[in-house]
Write a structure and sequence with these properties.
single chain, 4 helices, elongated, about 80 residues, 2 strands
């Protein structure tokens, strides 16, 4: 029995609690990467946003505005 098999719950808890990925290596087979469901959902959302050219252009403009200090501060009480 491997260390991973003996301590699987501990490894899985670490993936979730520390928002880390776990790479499981296997002999003569491709590796497996384990991430939390929350991180997986974030990854899917990022792929969607960055995969859409309109969203990507809007995001790039916003990043450039922030870098150039072209932002406006709005207080929630003023809304």
């Amino acid at each position: 029995m491997t260390d991973f098999q003996r301590n699987m719950v501990k490894y899985f808890d670490n993936v979730v609690d520390q928002s880390r990925r776990l790479t499981v290596t296997r002999q003569h087979k491709p590796n497996i990467v384990i991430i939390s469901e929350k991180d997986y959902e974030c990854l899917k959302e990022n792929l969607y946003v960055l995969g859409n050219s309109t969203n990507r252009k809007h995001l790039d403009r916003s990043i450039n505005q922030a870098k150039n200090h072209q932002t406006t501060q709005i207080h929630l009480n003023d809304l």
